[in-house]
Amino acid sequence: METLDLARLQFALTAGAHFLFVALTLGLATVVAVLQTRATLSPTPARTRMTRFWGQLYVTNYAMGIVTGLVMEFQFGLSWSGLTHFAGNVFGASLAMETLVAFFIESTFLGLWIFGWDRLNRWAHLAAIWVVTLTAYASAYWILVSNGFLQNPVGYEVVGDSLRLTDVWAVLSNPNTIMAFWHVLTGALVTAGFFLAGVSAYHLLRRTRDTEFFTGSLRIGVFTGAPALLASAMTGGIQLGELATTQPMKPKLLGGDAAKLAQVNAQLVERFGPGDYLPPADWARAGGLVMLITFALLFNLGWFSVLMAFSKRVVQRFRLWHLALVLAIPLPFLAMIAGWVYREVGRQPWVVYGLLRTSDAVSPVSAGQMRASLIAFTVLFGLLIAVNTALLARQAKRGPDAVALGRPAAEYRPAPLPAATY
């Protein structure tokens, strides 16, 4: 494989893997913040217990996601120096803001929240998790400001062989950014909702003793995920309408009509000059179709689950439904990744749409060097995903009694030291 193909594959694997963590983190942060708000306004041991259990799963996923985010920061300089040279003056500031928000503000307040149980008063502790949640939203927004500019460049001028920012507001209010932000946020709520429902269904399927706990959690997951599916469909539909103007090739990919694709390519030739502006159609179409099919499965299961969740007896005893919810846990992740593939592959051959081709953005490194870094990143990210999955599964299976987060010091009973022998 050539350097360009290896660089594209490397970025796809690392960005896609990181996105898996982000999807669950964004959604769980919101759910945990709402759970703690309810527990703070109307305190009960059951509500506090629920906040701690889902909060510990959130913290685990967040910690592993931070590691993948750090690696992503190196991607632009290592593999895409042509992009940073050409457009870094425009989208580099938003990447810096994301780093500032995620690694300083969000992480600081998350630390206060993790270690502030029984140390901060309940209102300060509640404020900490809401700051964490809102800065997570801000972090996602800043990333999408950068990505939105690559998809639909606005607010710039060309100066020599690079771009210069001329209109900050145009970049910040880019329609491609705003709609993508709401689409990602609603997709994250779908992911978290089905995660809650699936984990709860697993315990109800096993007839664990925390029946009331997981009955309530399953209902929260269902009543979060199903409405979020509707919102996700709305924001996705608006994006498709916007693409008809900004990236006319992309909507045509789903239909697979060769004549229509050729017609759009001819229009792009008139706009950008001679060339082939067809993206890897099979990959883009596959991503779009998998996203739509997975959404359809989730939509039907989600709203069926809403109907079932009104009956407490059904929630606790419908074992086939429980199994379906457990098996559905990976589906939102699949839908999110498939949608990301459609969004990114459908932009090709441009890295900055209409301005810079992907082939001109790759760093001047050898195929051997790129292959070595691809192997290293793939192994690292594979291990992180495996470890994160194992940790989440183990903590979820243990249930709320095994949670360490927020446990009062009085509950700790360290084992006595063995007697000294001489």
TrEMBL record:
InterPro entries named in the record: Cyt-d_ubiquinol_oxidase_su_1
Protein name, entry field: Cytochrome d ubiquinol oxidase subunit I
Subcellular location: Cell membrane
Family annotation (PANTHER family): CYTOCHROME BD UBIQUINOL OXIDASE SUBUNIT 1 (PTHR30365:SF15), CYTOCHROME D UBIQUINOL OXIDASE (PTHR30365)
TM ranges: 12-35, 56-78, 90-116, 123-144, 180-205, 217-240, 286-308, 320-342, 372-393
The keyword ATP-binding belongs to this UniProt entry's keyword annotation: no
Gene Ontology cellular component annotations, sorted alphabetically: cytochrome complex; plasma membrane
Alphabetized UniProt keyword annotations: Cell membrane, Electron transport, Heme, Iron, Membrane, Metal-binding, Transmembrane, Transmembrane helix, Transport
Family, as annotated: Belongs to the cytochrome ubiquinol oxidase subunit 1 family.
One Pfam family matching this protein: Cyt_bd_oxida_I
Claim: Iron is one of the keywords in the record: yes
